[in-house]
Design goal:
The complex is a heterodimer of chains A (about 750) and B (about 80).
Chain A: H1 18-23, E1 38-44, E2 50-56, H2 58-62, E3 66-71, H3 81-90, E4 95-96, E5 102-108, H4 111-120, E6 122-127, H5 134-138, E7 162-170, H6 173-178, E8 182-190, E9 202-207, E10 213-217, H7 222-233, E11 240-244, H8 260-270, E12 274-277, H9 280-286, E13 292-301, E14 307-317, H10 326-332, E15 342-349, H11 364-381, H12 386-393, H13 412-421, H14 423-426, E16 433-442, E17 449-455, E18 461-465, H15 473-485, E19 492-496, H16 513-540, E20 547-550, E21 553-556, E22 567-568, H17 569-574, H18 576-579, E23 583-589, E24 597-607, E25 614-624, H19 631-650, E26 681-686, H20 708-720, E27 726-727, H21 731-738
Chain B: E1 2-6, E2 19-22, H1 27-37, H2 42-47, E3 49-53, E4 56-59, E5 71-76
Parallel strand pairs in B: 1-5
Antiparallel strand pairs in B: 1-2, 3-4, 3-5
Classes of the chains: A alpha+beta (about 750), B alpha+beta (about 80).
């Protein structure tokens, strides 16, 4: 696919959500209130694993101001087992499965009364054995969280907590390793981390006795919220209107529900609107972090840097319910390389921790970290240049990927070559400083989407899409609409519609929105253009097929069609009431061919040998994004991914005590990087157009979190002269490695 | 006939078979035939899979056409963040 010339795409207009956000006008999840609403508080288990023998809510109910109290008994068992797990995660049934698991909830006329009522609820627990470590949870004899969900075909060598097994690859490992001059086999561990979104989960629910409801919430997918809540509350989807608030970060963590069914149930029971807002403590203990991992990697390499064989064994723990995510790691692990002999295996494991949920490129960062660390160690051992070695093995168009498909046009080689040519790569290094390199990969998705476009009589355009804007999609969708219609950008306003305003749309995940909603927008614009050409043809009294759309106006296709001056969109719209009524376009579909994305990160880190503290001194991130619609937003995505990955590498971790309780549920003890910790992340956009999108777009939101873990680890390992095998590389671990 | 590649761990349900040839005009027919040929795959296919057709990944798209010489890779249903 050749590069195209665009008028609007690739420019950097002022972001449409900017003014509202900097002035405080934007309405986030907790910002909506209504007269007479109640406040919800949730009682959570202090135990990692316990049978709930009894719950006495009588004293709480008797407290003046309390309007409703609910427990697991208020929630029916569901036929759909996956929704059933979600429901049980929102409110425990017979067992509390992790520290923070909800066991009861209260709605009261004030927050303080609700908090007081929680203290009056008496729960009798019978403590059960617990397990929070993935390797321990896999062992036969480990406490099993749910019976009967073990992955098919697995034997007695693993416990019933092992709910998923996947393997991918091709070739013959034995042959490949025999061809190697050097084989390195290492084991790695990574901690569970949280997405760290600044806005806690929040919602306002109003569910009447007639089964009709309204729900306002901070979410990455309000149609998904509607679907899950309707099933849990046993109401029809059409009767629950869900509106997505502005969102203060999601990164995958707001692709499911935690408090929404609880607030709806309290509203149903009290007959009042109910507002629920998680505290930060609750966000850490009871929303969904990502998985922790334990991994074994073995890679063989020839003296000239050719990878002859590669093997990965990945064990992920994903918390207290069955889940499926290690497959994404197993598929991503070796995606950057063109290999003849490769195998990756993965096991999904349950533990007594909060149920995992997606975190930006879920499953990929840890797997790629371990692989890239071994590649880097091989480069050191064989005295090879890290980028040249990766170029020698890089996947490119026509490569049979390690997970099966043969790649179409991809931009890994371009990203590696840009990194090699960048001044960063040849800059001198100071004392105690190391330079790390890593590749990264993410799949990107399409999925279901709906867009509605109205051409207004004054020549402006309103566009409604169904995906919450978590990364600038209103800007990019408006820009693609303007490009397709051939009109100025300021003629267009895009909003995110509620579930009653526009057709179904999948969750905002998988880096899918600019790709998928973009295609729907172009198709909606084309539908409107077709109608506008028809109206012009009617006015000119010529055949509809004799009219074409050029630069925002209808014009005859040639002299034979007639001599008429072009009619602009505004001119056609102005008389639409007299030519057949309002003009609109819409599109509903499920576009695929999203096009995978690769990135390459370079980082210089300085390690203080006395304290073990690591300072990131310079960071450059290269990423193939297909076509950057609004480059500033794309750069923001790349920078944000890099920062989150740096936090994962250096500081962030869920720390559990022997009692199975989370030790650090707050930003004081769970340290995410802040602006003053880091240098400016320098993003370098690479554009290898995706043939699956009319404008060449690839998703760009997730790839950037994949390379930083290994890039930072490789930099630290080179700085201290010792390889690091565990994340986060907190100062005590680095000091221990230095010895 | 399209060449259908079955990802590694699913081969436990195909008696170790990793590749088969199936004549199918679209993904829906292909998945139906795959389920009929390998009963053990029925549960996984019913739960949802992704398909890579000649390198392009499709998520649950029944009527995506398949050419006679296409390569179709059956993969787990993908999820993102």
């Amino acid at each position: 696919m050749s590069k195209q010339d665009f008028k609007i795409l690739g420019t950097r207009p002022i972001r449409p959500d900017g003014l509202d956000k900097v002035t405080g006008k934007a309405m986030f999840g907790a910002d909506k209130s209504v007269t007479g609403m109640l406040h919800a508080r949730i009682l959570r288990s202090p135990h990692a694993h316990a049978e709930i023998v009894s719950i006495d809510t009588s004293k709480a109910k008797a407290l003046p101001g309390v309007k409703a109290v609910i427990t697991g008994a208020d929630f029916d068992e569901l036929k759909n087992r996956w929704t059933g797990y979600t429901s049980q995660n929102c409110m425990a049934q017979d067992r509390a499965l992790y520290d923070g698991h909800a066991v009861a909830a209260v709605a009261a006329i004030s927050k303080s009364i609700a908090a007081a009522a929680l203290k009056l609820i008496e729960v009798e627990y019978n403590l059960l054995p617990h397990v929070t470590d993935v390797d321990e949870a896999m062992k036969p004899g480990a406490p099993v969280l749910h019976v009967g969900v073990k992955a098919r075909k697995l034997g007695d060598e693993v416990s019933g907590n092992t709910v998923g097994y996947y393997s991918f690859g091709h070739g013959d490992l034995e042959t490949g390793f025999a061809e190697a001059d050097e084989v390195i086999e290492r084991s790695f561990k990574t901690a569970a981390t949280h997405q760290g979104y600044i806005e806690p989960h929040a919602c306002l629910a109003d569910l009447g006795s007639d089964g009709r409801g309204e729900l306002w919430c901070s979410t990455q997918g309000h149609y998904n919220v509607r679907l899950i809540c309707a099933e849990i509350l046993d109401i029809e989807e059409s009767q629950l209107r869900v509106t997505a608030s502005e969102i203060g970060g999601g990164f995958g963590g707001k692709t499911t529900v935690f408090i929404e069914p609880v607030a709806l149930m309290l509203s149903r029971k009290s007959g009042k609107p109910v507002k629920a807002v998680m505290t930060r403590d609750e966000v850490f203990r009871a929303s969904g972090p990502t998985m922790s991992s334990s991994m074994d990697i073995k890679i063989g390499m020839s003296k000239d840097g050719r990878i002859t064989a590669a093997q990965a064994k990945l064990r992920y723990q994903g918390g207290a319910f069955p889940y499926q995510m290690v497959m994404m790691g197993a598929m991503s692990a070796f995606a950057a390389y063109d290999l003849d002999h490769v195998q990756s295996e993965g096991w999904d494991v349950m533990t007594n921790r909060p149920k995992m949920i997606s975190y930006r490129a879920p499953g990929a960062p840890m797997a790629v970290y371990a692989v890239e660390a071994v590649v880097d160690e091989l480069c050191q051992k064989l005295e090879l240049d890290p980028i040249d070695t990766r170029l020698k093995n890089a996947a490119r168009e026509g490569t049979k990927s390690s997970y099966g498909p043969t790649f179409k046009a991809i931009g890994l080689v371009e990203a590696l070559e840009a990194a090699k040519a960048h001044p960063h790569y040849s800059a001198p290094l100071a004392e105690n400083t190391g330079r790390g390199v890593s590749c990264g990969f993410w799949f990107n998705f399409g999925g279901q989407v709906s867009v509605s476009m109205a051409i207004n009589a004054d020549g402006t355009v309103n566009l409604i899409e169904g995906n919450p804007d978590i990364g600038g999609s209103r800007a990019s969708i408006s820009m693609m609409a303007a490009e397709a219609l051939g009109i100025p950008l300021d003629r267009i306003r895009t909003i995110v519609g509620d579930t009653a305003s526009v057709g179904f749309s999948d969750v905002t995940d998988g880096s899918r929105v600019t790709f998928a909603v973009g295609i729907a927008t172009i198709n909606a614009a084309n539908a409107a253009i077709k109608e506008m050409c028809k109206r012009a043809a009617m006015i000119w009294e010529i055949d509809e097929d004799a009219v074409e759309w050029v630069d925002g106006a209808a014009q005859p296709t040639g002299h034979n069609a007639g001599e008429f001056p072009p009619m602009s969109l505004a001119e056609i719209a102005a008389v639409s009431g007299k030519t057949g009524g309002p003009i609109a376009g819409h599109h509903e579909g499920a576009p695929d061919k999203a096009g995978v994305s690769f990135g390459v990160h370079l980082v210089d880190v300085e390690v203080d040998p006395e304290t073990g503290f690591t300072a990131v001194k310079r960071y450059t991130a290269f990423q193939d994004v297909g076509k950057a619609i609004h480059p500033a937003y794309v750069e923001g995505q790349i920078q944000g991914g890099a920062v989150q990955g740096i936090g994962w590498a250096l500081n962030e971790e869920y720390i559990y005590g022997e009692d199975g309780r989370l030790q650090n549920p707050g930003f004081l003890d769970y340290r995410i990087p802040v602006a003053s910790d880091l240098p400016m992340i320098d993003p370098v956009i690479i554009e290898v157009p995706n043939p699956g999108h009319p404008f060449g777009v690839r998703g760009c939101g997730e790839t950037a979190i994949v390379p930083p873990l290994a890039a930072v680890s490789n930099g630290v390992s080179r700085a201290i002269g010792k390889r690091m095998f565990e994340l986060p590389m907190s100062p005590p671990k680095i000091l221990k490695a230095i010895g | 006939m399209a060449r259908v590649v079955i990802f590694g761990s699913l081969r436990a349900f195909t008696g170790g078979v990793g590749e088969v040839e199936i004549e199918a005009k679209n993904t829906r027919v292909l998945l139906q035939k795959l389920s009929e040929q390998f009963e053990g795959l029925r549960e996984t296919i019913a739960a949802g899979v992704s398909l890579a057709i000649d390198g392009e990944v499709f998520k649950e798209a029944w009527f995506t056409p398949i050419d006679e010489d296409s390569e179709v890779v059956v993969m787990p249903l993908m999820v993102g963040g």
